[in-house]
Design goal:
Largest sheet: none
Strand content: under 5%
Oligomer: single chain
Number of domains: 1
Length: 104
């Protein structure tokens, strides 16, 4: 119970570091990402990187560049594993049922 709560808080902090506001994401999508992260033993930063791989096409140039700078910093400080980085580059999250953004 507390593990899920603290994981969600850390994931939200990592998303904010990437300039992705968690409140803009679909709540069902966030729940699925938390469940997937816990199931696959991803760090919150690795899960945030997976979310970034989904929302990246919708970001403007400044947001893209700033998020890439954060990812570079995480990789230098061993915040993410190289295998998880490669997975996010390949376009992770294929098995999630919900979309990243709520329907308008």
């Amino acid at each position: 119970m507390f593990k899920r709560f603290f994981y969600r808080r850390a994931l939200n902090a990592a998303l904010r570091e990437l300039d992705i506001q968690p409140s803009t994401l679909n709540p069902a999508f966030r729940d699925e990402v938390v469940a997937m992260g816990l199931r696959e033993s991803l760090s919150p930063k690795e899960a945030a990187m997976e979310v970034l791989s989904v929302v990246f096409p919708g970001l403007n140039l400044v947001e893209r560049l700033s998020s890439l700078a954060v990812i570079r910093q995480w990789r230098r400080s061993s915040g993410v594993r190289e295998s998880r980085f490669q997975r996010a580059l390949a376009g992770g999250l294929p098995d999630l049922q919900s979309t990243a953004f709520p329907d308008k």
